[in-house]
Amino acid sequence: MDRIERVYFLGIGGIGMSALARFFRSLGKAVAGYDRTSTPLTRALESEGISIHYEDNPDMIPFAVTRNQGEPQTLIVYTPAVPKDMKELLFLNEAGFVLHKRSEILGLITRSYDSLAVAGTHGKSSVTAMITQILIESGAGCTAFLGAISKSIKSNLTLSDTSRFAVVEADEFDRSFLRLDPYLGCITSMDADHLDIYGDYPTLVQGFTDFVNRIRRDSSVVIKKGLPLVPDPGRNLTLYSYSLNETDTDFHALNIRQAGLGYSFDIATPEGAIKGVVTRVPGITNVENAVAAASLAILAGVSAEGIRSGLRAFEGIVRRFDVRFNRSGVVYVDDYAHHPNEIRAIVQSLRLLFPGKKLTGIFQPHLYSRTRDFAAGFAEELSRLDELILLDLYPAREKPIQGVDSKLIFDMVSGIPRQMCSKQELAGRLPGLDIEVLLTIGAGDIDQLSDPIVKYLEENVA
After folding, report:
1. DSSP structure class, residue 152
2. Domain 111-313 is in which class?
3. Integer distance in angstroms from the first to the last C-alpha of the chain?
């Protein structure tokens, strides 16, 4: 790493890629990159001195990169999320440049730390950010690479020159987490997802099992109760279980009470209860996430007071049960949910938090393959809303699949008022909604609608 002078990123606006870009920039390296569209995150990177262009054009790759082919001072990083026919990717490959996956570089960076790695098809971003806050507030500190923007640190990266800990979101997409060598690990969930990568659920389970077997020998792993994971006995890992409130698990919450939009509760641990825990983030799922974060932090040596202070200071992360508006009985929440189980969790949490309120959802399906694989599941969970607006499918990296679009889900939704529209048409539909609790959900570019929705509500809610 010391020899590297310049780093170029293909897909720099991705949440994981941008954290790496910030890391190298903090080391004083020259950092540049390409992304498809300008976003608040890419603009933040530009304000930090990182050069970004938004046209897929090999001529726009910095000359300092292209003239130094093969030199160890130049590092080129790409994300598998970029299309394989991307012009810059093709140019660099055909010209003989050595390209490195984001996961490979993350693995190399974190190998010199005692890494706390959190994996799971959902929940990992929140748990990772919570652990980071706990380590900061406890004084242990950490260098953390987050999969979302923490509202507490206002970034997806935090740095420490003195801490031995790294906190890492272990991403299962493209089997990226198999590049990591954690000191401690946590598995939050293992739903059938990314089947375009794994093919079937047993293969996905094997991927997670392979990840667990990369955890340092003679160390520990915390696993959500009920997940079918059996580590290699030769690793001699100590297995701990956690849950929301099931008393037959090693870590769980007790005496859960709503406190404003957040909760107060105790955390049962193998060494006794940590009493008086208070969180400020909404959603009963975040109580479970707090239990997971506390369990890993305890295994890393954090005290009970460190757990309490860290969870009390945690302000949440962007696009995870993100309350964007709350005034005069009208609430707007934005969330990244893009799998049927995630939609079920956010809807159930909102029903508990705002009983009796009308719940209107705006959903943007993400990926043709996921829509094809889970159309019936999406329709079932979306039917639990009181009203639905379904947006056009966001394809991301995928090519169209015949017969697969938003209408596939729309036709199976039942029992509620529903309508379809494009992202551009949504503004014209808002005045026709009787909004009490509004929810936007999806992993595509639906987040670009959040600010206009907030502006509409600020102008129309007394």
Report:
1. T
2. alpha beta
3. 55
Scanning 260-367, the segments in alpha helix (DSSP H) are 285-299, 304-313, 340-353
Domain locations in the chain as residue ranges = 6-101, 111-313, 322-460
Beta-bridged to residue 390, according to DSSP, are: 363, 420
CATH architecture of the domain formed by 6-101: 3-Layer(aba) Sandwich (3.40)
Which token pair is 86? 């991307």
Q: What is the pTM of this model?
A: 0.91
Closest by CA to 5, choosing from 74, 54, 59, is: 74
Low-confidence residues of the chain: pLDDT under 50: none
Length of the chain as a residue count: 462
**What per-residue confidence (pLDDT) applies to 193?**
83
Tokens matching residue 77 = 């990083």
For residues 216, 222, 227 and 230, what is the CA-based torsion angle, rounded to 10 degrees? 30
Q: Residue 129's pLDDT is what?
A: 98
Contact 332, 453 (CB under 8 A): yes
H helices present in 173-284, as ranges: 195-198, 201-212
Q: What is the CATH number of domain 322-460?
A: 3.90.190.20
Q: What DSSP assignment string belongs to 191-202?
A: -S--HHHHSSHH
Q: Residue 356's pLDDT is what? A: 96
